[in-house]
Amino acid sequence: MTAEADGRAVVRVGSPTERRNPDSVDLDLMSTRDVVRVINEADRTVPTAVAAVLDEIAAAVDLAVVAIRSGRRVHYFGAGTSGRLGVLDVAELPPTFNSPEDWFCAHLAGGTGAVFRPVEDAEDSDGGGEREAADCVHAGDLVVGLAASGRTPYVLGALRASRAAGAGTVLVAADPAAAAAAEVDVFIGVDTGPEVVTGSTRMKAATAQKLVLNAFSTAVMVRLGRVYSNLMIDMVATNAKLRGRMISILEEATGYGEEACRRALADADGDLKAALVALVSGASVADARGALARSAGQVRGAVALLATGRA
Questions:
Q1: Which of 68, 145, 179, 272 is the most exposed place for a label (fewest CB within 10 A)?
Q2: CB half-sphere exposure, 167, CA atoms < 13 A
Q3: Is the pTM of this model over 0.85?
């Protein structure tokens, strides 16, 4: 770390995302079609890079499931694009899976205002991350740090404070050799390489983080019984399209016609999961709800309980 003449700190980052991409050195001389082709060809390498860290993603999922089943929370800490992706993932979980809003929590360097515009030096404050984590992270929680470079001070500060509080820790980075890998329980280092625009981690590094978060949070919801087969059975119907999707889901899952599915959903006061269990088992909605409560919200478990008369 060095300092400019005005006294502000300067950091030279050695992450792979800061290297020049040989495929795009003449980017400003290319035709528009070639610019978007080069970007697309680079983007196509990202899923392969994510595929190399599936074991680590699965390990993080298992930690999150244990935390939530124990009444604890999952926290995302990030800055810039990484932090915004964490905010987006958390925002999408309740409407998609009807998950309680306190299961997942997003923390962004600079606060909510940083979603739309950068907050100067916010990501450089390891103390800011430490203080924020100390205020809200508890033993048994899981904290996921999101940092393309793997060295963002705000994120590392939050991870340090979280470890001290007895929380599990995960770091998602685009630098497989990040030094902080040794300081967390699970390190997800995605090797996305140099960006098309050097250092612009809103590109491949961000795409990789979005894929990791999609896989992570969706798998957590699957393990917690918020999905039956490949159907969203805990969704919240907030508009006409989603109300129609509920009917379609019941038809797909049960084989019953539209009228029977509409009637079951009405009997369940719009509770898709209870309507599903009632239709599949032939039980009343009240018995379906009781079986779901006894099976920790798992549809297959509830149906099995009703089939054996143990509900």
A1: 179
A2: 28
A3: yes
